[in-house]
Amino acid sequence: MTSKKVRERILIVDDEANVRSILKRHLESEGAECETSHDGLDALCKLKQKSFSLVISDIMMPGISGMELLHRVKEKDPEIAFIMITGIKDIHLAVDSLRIGACDFITKPFELQGMRHAVERAFERRRLLIENRRYREKLESKVRKRTQELNEALQEVDESYKITLEALVTALDAREHETQAHSQRVREYTLTLAARLELGQEDLVQVGRGALLHDVGKIGVPDSILLKPGKLSKEEWVEMKKHPRIGYDILQSIEFLAPAARIVLSHQERWDGRGYPNGLSGESIPLGARIFAVADTLDAMTSDRPYRKALSYEAALKEIRSCAGTQFDPRIVEAFLGVPPETWLAIHDSVNQSHINLDCLDVLCATSDISR
Questions:
Q1: Close Cβ partners of 2 (under 8 Å, ≥ 6 residues apart)
Q2: What's the DSSP call for residue 34?
């Protein structure tokens, strides 16, 4: 013990004064700093006032026994080493003390050399426990740091996804000049309605992406059809109705957009089965697409069109209510009607105010009929 740079502090607890004196004198000669207590209560007081590396305690003492003291010491600090000494040769006591956390169990009378070896083993065990804890804390700190770095990287990826998606959608909306900010408004309407229906966080993410990208398939529709100011012919409608499938084919091969692709594919389906491209009906239509259908109709009716001015929110709500059970899922219409009109109007105004000004693209984008 004399080779240690830092003097270890030992608390010796025994109701026999001569045992305390002998142990104190011997261990201090080996380089330790020792204090003594005549019973368990006094030992607990000293443990509150100072830190100790090791407690050496008798078992049979008046008041608090050595076993109870061991319990309390380990509850306070599991790294404090503890050696039990006793005049009782009882294997069960020895096993119990070791199970609770004692490093050693020594019977009286003991040899000082044997006690010195027991103290050295106790210090070594304590050193290993502390090293273990520090290693664990260091490892946990590294894990927390790496987790934070990973989360920040994922946030950057999510942000890049968001920027990429919104840039794509802005370009699409700009191509269809009369519906600039349409996709962003529909996304916010859809998310508001989906949250009211208590969808989980991951579902909200996918529903939001599906709503934002619902018209991405119009990339594959010829400008002569998409930007035609007049009524489409039968043949042109056949081409227009391909855009949900085109959008689905574009998105399903992109891993993070694959779940949203199903919403894009089904966004023109109807509750009564009269929609397209697959004529799905009822709950066979993905929930996100059913929610989107209501939100899309709200935006279509309350936005200006070349052939009419925007309708009032009251008129839109009346129309959506009347289409429950035919065009729309009745449960979703019910949830929609539970949202005050002021909420939809606030979303409309907020999105429009934050939308990027694309006036510079006016010369490149012809006016079109976007009721399709």
A1: 30, 31
A2: E
Listed residues 112, 138, 164: the one ending a domain:
138
Q: First vs last Cα of the chain: how many Å apart?
A: 89
17 vs 13: CA distance, rounded Å: 10
| Residue 31 and residue 130 in one domain | yes
Looking at 138, 166, 194, which one is the last position of a domain?
138
Torsion over CA: 291, 313, 317, 306 (sign): negative
CB 266 within 8 A of CB 278: yes
Asked if 291 contacts 332 with a C-beta cutoff of 8 angstroms, the reply is yes
CB contact at 8 A, 94 and 117: no
Give the tens place of pLDDT for each residue, 324-336. 999 999 999 999 9
pLDDT digits (tens, 9 = 90+) for 258-307: 899 999 999 999 999 999 999 999 999 999 999 999 999 999 898 876 55
Ramachandran bin of 223, using left for φ above 0, alpha for ψ from -120 to 50, beta for the remaining angles: alpha
3-class secondary-structure state, position 232: coil
Question: How far apart are the C-alpha atoms of 97 and 66, rounded to whole Å?
Answer: 9
Q: How far apart are CA 291 and CA 331, in angstroms?
A: 10
Distances (CA, A) of 11 to 8, 36, 165, 227, 333: 10, 6, 68, 90, 75
Task: Answer yes or no: do 119 and 184 share one domain.
Answer: no
Query: What is the tens place of the pLDDT at every residue in 70-117?
Result: 999 999 899 999 999 988 887 888 888 888 889 989 888 888 988 999
In a domain, 164, yes or no: no
The pLDDT of residue 359: 37
300 within a domain of the structure (yes/no): yes
Write out the two tokens for 107.
Answer: 């019977």
The answer to whether residue 224 sits within a structural domain is yes
For the chain, give me the number of helices (H) and strands (E)? 15, 5
Whether residue 149 lies inside any domain: the answer is: no
116 lies in which domain range?
Answer: 9-138
The pTM score is 0.55
